[in-house]
Specification:
Layout (H helix, E strand, L loop, with lengths): L4 H9 L10 E5 L17 E7 L3 E8 L15 E2 L4 E7 L6 E8 L4 E4 L15 E2 L11 H9 L8 E5 L18 H6 L9 H15 L3 E4 L3 E2 L12 E5 L6 H13 L3 E6 L3 E3 L19 H4 E2 L4 E3 L5 H17 L4 E4 L2 H5 L21 H17 L4 E4 L21 E3 L1 H11 L3 H4 L18 E5 L11 H4 L4 H17 L3 E5 L24 H19 L13 E8 L4 E7 L7 E7 L5 E8 L4 E7 L37 E7 L3 E8 L3
Parallel strand pairs: 9-10, 9-21, 10-13, 13-17, 17-18, 18-19, 19-20, 20-21
Antiparallel strand pairs: 1-2, 2-5, 3-6, 4-5, 6-7, 6-8, 11-12, 14-16, 15-16, 22-23, 23-24, 24-28, 25-27, 26-28
Helix pairs in contact: 4-5, 7-9, 13-14
Length: 670
């Protein structure tokens, strides 16, 4: 029998960040019991099962091999250590054996629980854990990982494409001729099968490369019982959802992305978990992983339970989980969901008695400490991995270093920028005069955190309309405004994220149960918007001034932030290390065209419009060949006049179309 008192004490003290290597189900060899993870292919003598359940009276391993606990089987009864851990070894079972822990709690009730450390789960609606070898895949991304560990993402382009793996694209229904019977196929879109991780990888990597994205962000992939939760109500934290394939399939996905130069970020939900009876909730008959106090534990808004970070082993469980995804699957970063729910007791609190901390405040001090320890551990264990906070609160220092009192994240989603700018874009030009600062206010606090500008899935569901449908006006106006808005976003300080379908202007809100409306690309406005987004992303990649100074005081300055009567904004993006490497951005969100617009410029040199969101005649066609590549954008120069304008010493004159954004580049002759 193998218990490790030193490991158990380390785990309970909160200093173990690789607990998944010991706890859960592993293969055992006679040569080195409990440590060798050689895999099923090496014909292990037996499997080990190791679980923490201090409140249990007894624990058995149950599965098909013992009629789910209905019959006796050698060694299926587990033995308890003095620290509350249960362990047994069972003679070799075949790979993919289904199992659960049959736990008799202190209250006398019997619960069948999935293994908290299982790496694979049964496909829903089944909830059993699956004995799986996690180490069969041969990786080919060593060079990527080496480069990532030394990269400076703060001064690099980061442009993320967010997807839901179950609805980006889907397979075809057998027996339907999609060309001849497209109406039948359209009526059954929700029944189309999921693509496998490998199929997604091959199609998506080519698409992301074509569209000039740098990263893909996947909505949660931890196993979850309900499709409708989109993965945000976790069941098994260590188990990759089996909806789209095996762990080996997903490793192929990550490896394929890396070979294509694409980073992989995964949504992670460490604040709360689902209350399905098969998973963590009342795991051993007690509130083991969750709070004992009802007003801290129960999350009525989402119907979930909050993790209790005052317990050291819970911190270990989750920090080890972060390390697991980043190390075992080579993922490049985690986007942490609902940070406000973690750091505030009363976030979305519906309880009559609101919880308070020891000092009478509403901050969850132990959870904030967990986030500091999490980010410190991740950055130490996985160099180059990025940690991103989805935080809607005003909690200070989310991206500040833990030693300075911060939480230690690399980036924070700028929810304020998103809400303000989308509200502005929904207004008529006449109304925008009174809300001009909605587009400028983010620069008042831009350097308080390292921000990421996010236009995520949350902005395309629940009756909120899709991004393009949020724009003011008729459909043609929406397209014009949306192109200008995307240009404003790509040029504004901060890293970028856009939800799938938004790149081609899907009109219908996102539906998790069917694929995106790719047929919309047959319509010229949507097809051209996709090409426009690709070109805009391409400009972002090649113009260093658009990303190198995101978090520098010298990376941005306004030319005119107060031109409210004309709904116009103008600013400069600058590479802080090169005073000649800058771009001027000019955006007109009014319905008027200005034929002789005077724009202040900082240097006496030639200027050229290198990118515009609409053609010189106001149409969708972007002159200069952005869509066709037929002409030279840099062929037409504008010489400045010596008179100053706005805050600049010189000015140029140009035509500024209605609902149009321009990117203007200086060219020096000396």
């Amino acid at each position: 029998m193998l218990f490790s008192d030193s490991f158990e004490r380390e785990y309970l003290s909160g200093n173990c960040y690789d607990a998944y290597k010991r706890l859960g189900c592993h293969t055992v060899t006679e040569r080195d019991k409990g440590r060798a993870r050689s895999g099923f292919s090496d014909a292990p003598v037996r499997l080990s099962f190791y679980v923490y359940a201090p409140g249990a009276i007894s624990v058995r391993v149950a599965g098909d091999f013992n009629s789910w606990g209905g019959s006796s089987y050698p060694a299926d009864t587990m033995f308890r250590s003095d620290n509350g851990f249960w362990y047994t070894e069972i003679e070799a079972l075949p790979e993919n054996t289904l199992y659960k822990y049959m736990i008799t709690g202190a209250d006398g009730s019997v619960r069948f629980k999935a293994d908290p450390y299982a790496v694979t789960s049964e496909l829903r609606p089944g909830t059993a854990s699956v004995a799986t070898d996690l180490h069969k895949f041969t990786w080919s991304d060593a060079e990527w990982n080496k480069n990532r560990s030394s990269a400076d993402t703060y001064a690099s382009p980061v442009n993320i494409y967010e997807i839901h793996a179950g609805s980006w694209r889907r397979g075809r229904i057998p027996g339907i001729d999609y060309e001849k019977n497209w109406q039948e196929a359209e009526a059954q879109r929700a029944d189309e099968p999921f693509l496998n991780y490998r199929e997604i990888a091959d199609e998506l990597s080519a698409y992301l490369t074509e569209m000039n994205y740098t990263h893909v962000e996947l909505m949660p992939l931890c196993e979850h019982p309900l499709d409708d939760s989109w993965g945000y109500q976790t069941g098994s934290y260590y188990a990759l959802t089996s909806r789209f394939g095996t762990p080996e399939d997903f490793m192929y996905f990550v490896d394929r992305m890396h070979r294509s130069g694409i980073g992989v970020i995964m949504d992670w939900v460490p604040g709360h978990f689902c209350k399905d009876e098969s998973y963590l909730y009342k795991f051993d008959g007690t509130f083991l992983y969750e709070y004992g106090e009802e007003n801290k534990r129960e999350n009525p808004l989402w119907g979930t339970a909050n993790l209790d970070y005052s317990k050291n082993f819970v911190k270990n469980f989750m920090i080890s989980n972060a390390a697991y995804w980043l190390s075992e699957y080579h993922i490049d970063g985690l986007r942490i969901d609902a940070v406000a729910n973690i750091i505030y007791y009363d976030y979305n609190c519906m309880h009559r008695i609101r919880p308070l901390n020891a000092y009478g405040g509403n901050e969850n001090l132990e959870a904030a400490l967990f986030l500091r320890e999490l980010n410190t551990a991740v950055h130490g264990l996985v160099p180059g991995a990025v940690m991103i906070a989805e935080d809607s609160s005003t909690y200070p220092g989310v991206t500040a270093k833990p030693e300075w009192g911060g939480l230690g994240f690399d980036y924070k989603w700028n929810m304020g920028w998103m809400n303000d700018t989308l509200e502005y874009m929904s207004l008529s030009p006449a109304e925008r005069v009174n809300y001009h600062n909605k587009m400028t206010f983010a620069m008042m606090y831009a350097h308080t955190e390292r921000f990421m500008l996010s236009l995520s899935h949350d902005e395309t569901v629940h009756g909120k309309k899709t991004l393009i449908d949020k724009m003011y006006g008729d459909l043609d106006t929406k397209f014009s405004e949306y192109r200008a808005y995307l240009l404003y976003m790509i040029c504004h300080p901060g890293k970028k994220l856009l939800f799938m379908g938004s790149e081609f202007g899907q009109i219908m809100e996102w539906r998790f149960y069917e694929a995106l409306e790719w047929k919309m690309l047959l319509y010229p406005s949507h097809g051209m918007l996709k090409e426009y987004t690709k070109a805009l992303n391409g400009i972002y990649l090649i113009e260093k001034s658009l990303y190198a100074g995101d978090f520098s005081q010298n990376g941005f300055r306004w030319i005119d932030a107060d031109d409210r009567e004309r709904n116009v904004y103008s600013f400069i993006r600058q590479d802080p290390e090169n005073d000649r490497d800058f771009l001027i951005v000019l955006c007109n969100f009014s319905d008027r065209t200005y034929d002789d617009f005077r724009l202040g410029v900082p240097r006496f040199c030639d200027y050229s419009i290198i990118f515009r969101s609409s053609g010189s005649d106001g149409t969708e066609e972007c002159d200069g060949g952005l869509l066709t590549g037929a002409e030279d954008l840099y062929s037409s120069y504008i010489r400045p006049k010596p008179e100053g304008e706005s805050s600049m010493p010189f000015h140029i004159k140009l035509k500024l179309n209605a609902y149009c954004g321009l990117i203007i580049k200086p060219f020096f002759r000396y």
